[in-house]
Design brief:
Blueprint: H1 2-22, H2 26-50, H3 56-88, H4 92-112, H5 118-121, H6 129-150, H7 158-183, H8 188-210
Length: 215
Amino acid sequence: MVEFIYRVRYVSDFFMQIKGVFKMSLTTLFITAIGLSMDAFAVAVCKGLAVKKAGIKQMALAGLWFGGFQALMPAIGYFFGSTLKAYVEKFDHWIAFILLGAIGANMIREALSKDKDCDCESSSASMGIKEMFTLAVATSIDALIVGVGYAFLPDVNIGAAVGFIGVITFVLSAVGIKVGNIFGLKFKSKAELAGGIILILMGTKILLEHLGIIG
């Protein structure tokens, strides 16, 4: 019994150390990362639909492109946002709320758009550098804006955050290639819709916390 209690305390201390590294709530960071990665997942589904074979190589390639840029862009956004932080500290929580809300709303709009499947149906099967670079940049613009928002939050370890976002996007993008290859477009719109809702909820949570409405 004593040994069991010791192990529970050890595990608890371990997770407290992890939380200290991330500073921002692990749950909040995880959910936000999921929301951001949904755009990349949706595009990966399209790419998986177009390629003839979705093997480990194709899955890893998609994961590296999308996950890499999804990690890079928030870091760039955070750098630029930090230069403006001193001028807008009184409104930082509103900025984060507006940015996340706008991104989420746009993802929901795209998910509900009637012509949302056009790009997938004409998507090239190529996974060359030029095309993957273009797709990776396009799907990570939202993460760039979120990085700007992170600069105005007092409890974000940007190094840990971008690593977390990059790893989750890598995994979901790799899975998206396989899902698209097997199931087609079934999950694309649902992923974009879910991602949009998640980002809006996270922005709302940040705002309510700073206003003292929730703990």
